[in-house]
Amino acid sequence: MQKYLNYLRDYKFLAGVAALVVILGGAFYMTRVRPTSKSNSANVLNSLDWTTYSNDMLGFSIQVPKDATVSKNWNVLTITPANNPSKSWNIQEVDNVYTGGIDAFIKTQFGKDCSFDSLKPGAQEGTFDVEIASSPACEVGSGTVLKYSPTTHRLAEWDLGEGTTFGDSDSQMSDSFKFL
User: Fold this and answer.
1) pLDDT, tens digit (0-9, with 9 covering 90-100), for 115-135
2) Same domain for 71 and 109?
3) What are the Cα distances from residue 94, in Å, to 64, 114, 124, 179?
4) Rounded distance between C-alpha atoms, residue 97 and residue 115, angstroms
5) How many Å separate Cα 130 from the centre of its chain?
6) Helix, strand, or coil here: 85?
7) Structure pTM?
8) Which end is more exposed in the chain, N or C (fewer Cβ atoms within 10 Å of the end residue's Cβ)?
9) Which domain, by its residues, includes 71?
């Protein structure tokens, strides 16, 4: 009888260890192997033919298609797609903008009826999306992108235009933007 009880105790112990291995393995698979929605878009971005454009003077980097033309003129970076040279992104960078200066920039750039609403964490650490307060008199289009870094006090602004410039890649490129 004692031999049977020892066997049963050992069997329960081994069954417990096996269950723990299955549970931990499943947890590892769920957190490491299965992509989340953010890493899924990053995987799509990385699977295409991209390069990272980085400029210390402008203080940011962004992933762009390898066949795009990139040029810099003072504080504006122009990115033009190879398949549609009539459209481009013009990323304007502004230095020494403190939180209170965001509203002044918005009013100067888009009109006195437009104002700063809030900062929302962006896709890249340390980069925030600037939200403009909704107002019937403020006619900022949905394609306007504003990014801000409270650490470097830099602001970047660009307009995606009426139609998307880089097709499905517009939002992926915007999400890859980060201040240095």
Assistant:
1) 999 999 999 999 999 999 988
2) yes
3) 21, 18, 19, 12
4) 15
5) 13
6) coil
7) 0.69
8) N
9) 37-179
